[in-house]
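Revision sheet: structure tokens.
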Amino acid sequence: MTKLLKYLKPYAALIFIAIVLLIVQVVSDLSLPNYMSDIVNIGIRQGDIGYIGRTGLMMLLFALLSAACMVLVGLIGARVAAGFSMDLRKEVFTKVENFSSGEFDRFGASSLITRTTNDITQIQMVVFLSIRMLVYAPLLGVGGAVMALKKSVSMSWMIAVAVIVLVGVIFLLFSAALPKFKLIQKLTDKLNLVTRENLSGMLVIRAFNTQKFEEKRFDGLNRDITKTNLFVSRTMATLFPAMTLIMNGITLLIVWVGGRQIAQSNMQVGDMMAFMQYALQIISAFIMISMLFILIPRASVSAQRVAEILDTDLSVKDPEKPEELKKTLKGTVEFKNVHFRYPNAERDALSGLSFTALPGQTTAIIGSAGAGKTTLVNLIPRFYDVTDGEVLVDGVDVRKIKQHDLRGRIGYVPQKSSLFKGTIDSNLKYADENAAGDEIRKAAEISQSMEFISAMPEGFETEIAQGGKNVSGGQKQRLSIARALVKKPEILIFDDSFSALDFKTDSRLRKALKSETGGSTVILIAQRVSSIMAADRIIVLDEGRIVGIGKHGELMKSCETYREIALSQLSKEELA
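Predicted:
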């Protein structure tokens, strides 16, 4: 929790004002029992109505002052807590946006969502209550003890007994509850993961009639988190009855002991009443602190989880002294003896890769599933960094270039097409918000998207649902390709981006790309041999190694792996 306190610095002035108001409130609250004692001991005893009225008016003024301070502190606390959580969410989101794929793999999307929302909400609640109680409760407790001692030193042992019993109860309860708070957050992560998988994979679940299995899986986690929450709630539920019992017990003890001292003329009735009020204020202070203790353990777990994100050392960073890309090469991509291994993996995913992709040419990459094709292209925009060797763009190692500058030259179409909520126009302008209407239309024509866009009543203003749920897989792929083309990049990467297209559309799209992007370096991953037969160069991968480089005809003669893939898809006549 202490690691996150630096995010409260912008609100230091407001917190200081809140502390001043809390001190005023404590002074006001501590004054009330003393005035009540004076009314009983002096006003009532002497029958001085004027004194009673004046003292009662002072009590009213202090009560109103205390209430005003309470309201103002509440407003300040809400403002600080809301601002703090907003800044923290922004900081976490910004850090996550800079994560490489390795960090995403480490945390997982469901955990990152929980940490950005639920965990920060837990911290926000504690910050709000801390501003209200963390200063007020200790001051009230200490002030109450001092004032109580002034009224009667001989009865102070009762307050000490009450405090010791109270601390003991709190310690026992929290030693049982603290481990469960950590478990609740872990179970929340798992529950979010299952929910996310079910929502995103609903069609598959229905197709295989596995609703009951998924319901049982969800129900198991739901029951676990419910049981854990019930245990914590039941444990904490015993705290307030225990405190009420202690408060009533101390009140009874004060009346019994104080009554005897009054009978022996060792104490006045007003002093006993004031002592009782101070004792209750002390216990109330401990109740407030215990309320914080209920939330602090869970919030501390949440704070650790949020701090873990903020403290994560990024595996892909911008260089301290970035180099400029050479203007003479314009999109040349070169791999020099590249090796790559995923974190905690036993062996390299890529080994000894060396090749060059030149501007104006299409370099195709093919191989069996798991050969490392996607891993290879992910090294170019630095979604991962190489373990050994170099990836050069325009003659410069990508690790020596600013990520923003590097990715500004790359148009990337991922294996899984992703569209954002908005319109077709806003999705295509995601690559370049200043793109003109003619440029948007041109990109749509090259990607073969115009045929279905024209058929839509609203054309480019047609709404796209979240994730592109209201368009087909092929339409989503074509729009993703159009988005990359709007950028007019020097390097175009297509990661199996034609898989949902029919052969006719695939053929037209490849021809349009060849004629319209002739100056760009095109790197194309494909599963279908028919999509890459016309490529200028084909790289064949097998278990992370290059087993063949050449044109289609050359590889059919020299590369057994390529020949097997080709013959499994097309006849000899079609491959000729």
